[in-house]
Design a protein that fits this description.
The complex is a heterotrimer of chains A (447), B (147) and C (514). Chain A is mainly α and 447 residues long. Helix content of chain A is 68%, strand content 6%. Chain A contains 15 helices and seven strands. In chain A, a hairpin with a 2-residue loop joins strand 1 (95-97) and strand 2. Chain B has 147 residues and is of the alpha+beta class. Helices cover 32% and strands 31% of the residues of chain B. Chain B has one helix and eleven strands, in the order H-E-E-E-E-E-E-E-E-E-E-E. In chain B, the strands form two sheets. A six-stranded antiparallel beta sheet of chain B has the order 2-1-11-10-7-8, with no helix packed on it. In chain B, a hairpin with a 2-residue loop joins strand 5 and strand 6. The radius of gyration of chain B is 27 Å and the shape is rod-shaped. Chain C is an alpha+beta fold and 514 residues long. In chain C, helix 8 runs antiparallel to helix 20 (496-511) and helix 11 packs across helix 14 (279-289). The chains are: A mainly alpha (447), B alpha+beta (147), C alpha+beta (514). At the A-C interface, helix 9, helix 12, helix 13 and helix 14 of A face helix 1, helix 2 and helix 3 of C.
Chain lengths: 447, 147, 514
């Protein structure tokens, strides 16, 4: 590896703020729980900080010129998540991971390490997008294979078949398939964008997309959707659909595609509501969770209570009752944060997600080629929509689904996939900066 | 009473946590807006164009008179073909002058040419800031900076 | 091109985040209060499970309900089943009722009666001490009243007409609230036993029971007509004596008098008409008053809407009393003159609660001003040893306000003297005479009152009613107003009137320095 140092002061500065935030969160939690004025164990926050600093150091040493706010943003969001999981840990069962008895925060820390490693490998290692772009059909095949494998040999958790057992750990291939699909769609749209934008059929006043050109993409997308819906993973289906429509819109600029897509979605949702009892049940719970507050509506009702208890300023970190919500560490971590940090704290978290989205879209705008731009859009939309869907589900704005809040919810596959996406964004951003500098003949800036 | 104190302390720490969250948030917001501005400037420079040179007079017709040249942020001008703006004129030097966009305005700087660089008819000694509409002369080639 | 689309996308995503933030604000701020108050909220449950609950004392500082925390579970003990309906129960399993529900946040210490202190507590400590309640109800009178009802189903409401303080309010059959307010796991069987018993012991007949009032409603009709100037105490109806025997034909329907026995009908003005409880006389009064004014006065007296004992969120709810079929504005329109004439003497679609009728008596006693009711005298700091009586620190004293004028003092005075005659007059003693406190050892006090015998469906014994107040002689200051209802008790004179007289006499005895 060529050693060209590129200082990343903005990144370092924002990361240093975490050195106060995360340990403070742990200390507050400990005091609230133990009722004595002492710091408590700080191994996890220190490990987390070291992880972030090591990632920063590796980016500097490798001369990475990618976006400098991405890592601190993700680090802050993940830090809040780690504080919250540590706060919830005593109320939750320990997990058996890597042959060790670990609580959720410790396990999550291991996943964070894996995620950051994956991010660095992609961010630093992926110096050229050919690997992604030119082998897109291979990637698609791998994705389909993974899906099929899960559908056949996976096991069910809570009525959805999402998991495959890999000996020491279990993973959710759905999270990886999301990335593969984004890569494939970006590659396909980049290659065929001109055709898709120019050619169109007109039926009356409505411009219909040139279906033959869309077919290969629709076929793959349809296959993935079919499997995902078959697996009862409605949140994932909604997310994939959203990503697909968004990328199509960005590539072609046609609102009509989005409109047709939305109409299809509404029709499909209605059909699903009529045909599948579990979908109907989900919707009924959404419309009035209080109708069966002790039964099917128990989880969302408990979530709403948590939100209400939080109020404007929260119950105080470590002093709420988030453990009264079933699956609080995965599905309802946002409600738990909103309970203890209040509207004020939860809003800050939302704002950070929004900034992450803006930052990702900025990478897309600056990107020099269409594939990179579309890839950045897809990855960013994925992270943004995923957080919107689960948060809106927590807030009863849409039916609740079982997807995770990126970087915050407990879960290895989600953490790995989310960090991989950040890795992709960093890699695109790095190549953009290098290209711009070559063009303008400016040396690395010393900001 | 110690319980009281502990409670107040805990409250302060809890508020501190949220406050710090906002400090970080505003830090991000500041970097975000600053980058947004520089990105705009960058784009202004590289994409939409920060200016053009209209060729008013060119005896050898290279660059051709009457045409306009889109400008990047940094333009070298001279008789050497490797210059950004190649001027085919026997009174021009190999690397004659640099035309650069810095911050918000254009500058022209003579690169030690034999016959000098003229702005609005005056020979320049140091880098000179230009306004749109100013005329630059290199050798016998007369050009006007346009928006 | 892509850049432009991405910018548009950024705007859409921004909007989505704004919408989500709005949703966040809705649940955390706008709707939070309603959610926090729901009984199934784990915060409410958790706080209640282990939290010491304040003590409830009677007017003289006797413990009625107290809690202790054993093994981390709060258990509540109630000393007197006569209070089971007004106090209710605080069960970890079945929720809270009665005053336990209305004052839940005060008793558990979640709220301070003072909003500013409440806010400071909220910010500083998040949990405040439980607080105690002192009732206006006197346990001696309450027990006496409950004993009077004995095994019959019924209700007694006694109030101080001057202040609106409830002196006794009891409903039978009652139940023991202690076993259902202990360890949640053990609360099931006792609750099952209570609900399996006949007579719906959990229902508070005083507040939630709605009964046909019969003749006690004539007090309302008389007072309203006097106030409206439709009648004077001297007004007579020339057709009335004949109609006593032949019947009063209204719109082709014949209204008949109840059995007057050996009594000879005469041209009766208000006082004798009330003494013999003439349906014909009051049918005439009602028709002269007219449906519109009848409903108007009913609303002024507090009929036609759900009311409460106490004010605002601290009001113990009282079911609405109706003078016509329930409809828009509480009472629907009175359909015709037959209904109006019947309603005027307490039949037709009139259904009332004992609380409402005690309030009617109290309003007459109080010179036409309807007092605001309360059953809680004050909120106090928690007494660490309840057996030593309530703490001295009073955090909030209940104010009932000055009451509201419903009818003129003159109309009230005329009604009052007719009511005294109804108990103590020559003809009245035959009917409501048993309600006189004189008969029960209070020699110097006159009693005002009226009995009611509410006719029900064929074959069912009528409800026995009595309303009244004492002392009611000229210049007397009524200290107690009462409503007595005995379900299926037969005639008002037989059962309800003597109970009313005894309870009022007992109160006058208790308060006359004894």
């Amino acid at each position: 590896m060529r050693l060209t140092l590129a200082w990343r002061w903005a990144e370092l500065r924002m990361l240093l703020a975490l050195a106060v935030l995360v340990p403070l969160g742990f200390v507050v939690t400990h005091i609230a729980r133990a009722g004595v004025l002492e710091a408590g164990p700080l191994t996890l926050p220190v490990a987390y900080l070291l992880l972030m600093l090591v990632a920063h150091g590796l980016l500097v040493v490798s001369g990475h010129r990618g976006d400098q706010l991405m890592l601190p943003l993700v680090g802050t969001i993940g830090g809040i998540g780690l504080v919250m999981l540590n706060r919830l840990a005593p109320d939750l069962e320990k997990t058996q991971a890597f042959g060790l008895q670990l609580d959720v925060a410790q396990t999550q820390m291991i996943w964070f390490s894996g995620g950051v490693l994956a991010m660095l490998v992609v961010a630093i290692g992926l110096r050229d997008d050919g690997l992604l772009r030119h082998y897109k059909y291979t990637w698609a095949a791998i994705g389909i294979g993974l899906l099929a494998f899960t559908a056949l040999f996976g096991y069910d958790v809570n009525g959805a078949r999402l998991w495959i057992d890999l000996g020491p750990v279990a993973i959710q291939p759905g999270e990886l398939i999301k990335i593969i699909l984004v890569v494939f769609i970006a590659g396909y749209l980049a290659d065929n964008r001109a055709l898709l934008t120019e050619a169109s059929l007109r039926i009356g006043p409505i411009r219909v997309p040139p279906l033959p050109y869309l077919l290969p993409m629709l076929a793959l997308f349809g296959a993935v959707m079919l499997v995902v819906v078959r697996q009862n993973d409605l949140g994932q289906a909604l997310l994939l659909f959203g990503i697909f429509l968004t990328m199509l819109f960005v590539a072609t600029g046609r609102r009509s595609y989005v409109l047709i897509g939305l109409l299809l979605f509404v029709a499909g949702a209605y059909l699903a509501y009529r045909l599948f009892p579990h979908v109907a049940a989900r919707v009924d719970i959404w419309i009035d969770p209080f109708a069966d507050a002790q039964g099917s509506g128990f989880q969302p009702v408990r979530g709403l209570f948590a939100l209400a208890r939080g109020g404007l300023f929260g119950e105080g970190l470590g002093q709420g009752l988030p453990a009264t919500i079933p699956y609080v560490h995965t599905d309802f971590i946002f409600a738990a944060i909103a309970e203890e940090l209040g509207l004020v704290g939860a809003f800050a978290l939302l704002a950070m997600f929004l900034m992450l989205v803006f930052r990702g879209l900025r990478v897309a705008v600056l990107a020099r080629d269409e594939f990179s731009a579309l890839l950045a859009v897809g990855v960013t939309t994925s992270l943004g929509l995923q957080s919107l869907i689960i948060v809106a589900g927590n807030l009863k704005l849409i039916p609740l689904t079982g997807i995770t809040l990126p970087f915050v919810s407990y879960g290895g596959s989600s953490i790995l996939a989310s960090f991989l996406m950040i890795g992709l964004l960093l890699s695109i951003s790095h190549r953009t900066t290098l290209a711009a500098e070559r063009e303008q003949g400016i040396g690395p800036d010393d900001r | 009473m110690t319980g009281e104190i502990l409670r107040v302390l805990l409250l302060i720490l809890q508020l501190g946590f949220v406050a710090l969250l906002y400090v970080i948030l505003f830090g991000f917001a500041r970097s975000l807006t600053r980058d947004l501005r520089s990105a705009e400037a960058q784009q202004l420079a590289s994409r939409t164009g920060i200016g053009r040179l209209g060729v008013l007079e060119s005896p050898e017709d290279e660059p051709p008179a009457g045409t306009t040249i889109a400008l990047g942020p940094i333009n070298s001008m001279g008789r050497n073909v490797n210059n950004t703006i190649y001027v085919e004129d026997e009174f021009a030097s190999a690397t004659h002058a640099m035309l650069t966009f810095r911050g918000r305005s254009w500058f022209v700087e003579d690169q030690g040419s034999t016959n000098g660089t003229y702005v609005n008819g005056h020979r320049i000694e140091r880098p000179v800031a230009l306004s749109y509409g100013d005329e630059i002369m290199i050798g016998r080639v007369r050009m006007r900076l346009e928006r | 091109m892509i850049a432009t689309n991405v910018r548009r996308l950024a705007v859409y995503l921004l909007l989505a985040f704004v919408v989500v933030s709005g949703g966040l604000g809705w649940w955390q701020v706008v709707d939070a209060g309603a959610l926090n108050a729901r009984a199934e909220n784990p915060q409410v449950i958790a706080a209640r499970r282990s939290a010491l609950r304040g003590t409830i004392f009677d007017a003289n500082g006797q413990v009625l309900a107290s809690s202790q925390v054993l093994d981390g579970i709060s258990r509540r003990t109630y000393t007197d089943p006569a209070f089971s309906h007004v106090i209710g129960y605080a069960s970890l399993r079945f929720g809270t009722t009665g005053l336990e529900r209305v004052y839940d946040d005060v008793l558990t210490g979640r709220a301070d009666p003072n909003p500013l202190r409440d806010l400071i507590n909220d910010i500083m400590a998040r949990r405040t001490e439980p607080k105690d309640l002192t009732l206006t109800i006197d346990r001696r009178l309450q027990d006496f009243a409950a004993a009077q009802l004995g095994a019959s189903a019924g209700a007694i409401v006694a109030i101080d007409p001057r202040t609106g303080e409830v002196l006794a309010m009891t409903s039978t059959p009652t139940f023991d609230a202690t076993p259902i307010s202990g360890v949640p796991a053990d609360a099931g069987p006792p609750m099952d036993a209570i609900t399996a018993r006949d007579g719906d012991p959990l229902v508070d007949r005083a507040r939630q029971g709605r009964y046909v009032p019969g003749s006690i409603m004539k007090i309302f009709t008389a007072a309203s007509a006097l106030d409206a100037g439709v009648i004077t105490p001297q007004t007579t109806f020339p057709d009335q004596p004949d109609q006593e025997s032949s019947g009063f034909v209204v719109d082709g329907f014949t209204i008949r008098e109840h059995d007057l026995g050996n009594l000879q009908p005469d041209l009766w003005p208000l006082s004798p008409a009330l003494q013999v409880s003439s349906n014909i006389f009051f049918a005439h009064v009602g028709l002269d008053l007219g449906a519109e004014r009848f409903l108007q006065y009913a609303r002024r007296f507090g009929f036609c809407e759900t009311t409460g004992i106490g004010t605002g969120s601290r009001a113990l709810p009282v079911s609405a009393s109706y003078v016509s079929a329930p409809g828009d504005d509480g009472c629907g329109p009175i359909s015709d003159d037959v209904e109006l004439a019947s309603a005027a003497f307490g039949q037709a679609q009139v259904t009332v609660t004992p609380v409402q009728m005690s309030l009617l008596a109290a309003t007459i006693a109080n010179g036409g001003v309807m007092p605001g009711l309360t059953a809680v005298r004050d909120v106090r700091a928690h007494a660490t040893d309840p057996s030593a009586g309530p703490a001295d620190t009073i955090l909030e004293r209940t104010s009932t306000g000055g009451g509201s004028r419903v009818i003129s003092a003159a109309a009230a005075q005329a009604t009052r003297s007719a009511m005294v005659d109804a108990v103590e007059g020559e003809l009245g003693t035959l009917y409501a005479g048993q309600g006189a406190v004189k008969l029960y050892g209070i020699g110097d006090a006159a009693t005002a009152g009226k009995t009611g015998t509410a006719q029900r469906a064929e074959g069912q014994a009528p409800h026995s009613w009595f309303i009244g107040f004492a002392p009611a002689q000229e210049g007397g200051d009524p200290a107690i107003a009462i409503a007595v209802l005995v379900e299926g008790g037969g005639s008002g004179s037989g059962l309800a009137a003597p109970i009313g007289g005894r309870v009022m006499a007992e109160w006058l005895r208790l308060t006359s320095g004894g």
